Amino acid sequence: xxxxxxxxxxxxxxxxxxxxxGLTALALALLMPGAVAAxxxxxxxxxxxxxxxxxxxxxLTVGPVxxxxxxxxxxxxWTYTALGLTxxxxxxxxxxxxxxxxxxxxxxxxxxxxxxxxxxxxxxxxLSTTTGGSATNTTTNGLRTGTCTGTVSRATAPxxxxxxxxxxxxxxxxxxxxxxxxxxxxxxxxxxxxxGASTAATFLFTARQAGTP
Length: 213
Fold this sequence. Notes:
five-stranded antiparallel beta sheet; 10 strands; mainly beta; Jelly Rolls
């Protein structure tokens, strides 16, 4: 029987050399600029969910005493009948407190102006205000007189049809109060021409977020 021809050593060397050249060519192809290669990159995503976001609130309420504040919510009008006198004589006055509360979640800076609804009393209607005080009303020899303790906010001055400052600004922290005390009266020098005349003093309170212009 004839034995199969075995490849010579020189032929095996040629095949090995060709195989190595092929690997070298493949390696060079992978390293050459512009060669395209596919890579598998791992990736992942994550979600961050914040706590509930809730807007705050700004609300100024007012009333005659602590716990009796009115005007909850934006705006509104409160008629304070106790801050007035009928049949007022020259030199008479009445004192009343107004409690200002920051009923929202933020501190507020509060200011106020006062205006006379008519010019009937001219320069004879007078107003002074304090903060942090209390009101006292007495009657001596038939003459009614109101006084306020506290820190002066407005010195005694006429109330006219032109708005003038009555308070502030004063800061009121959330959930707390500031007491305004007002003395409203008729000038001791009021002329006889104002007899029987009447008007109304209107206070306009403005609250802004604390620290804003």
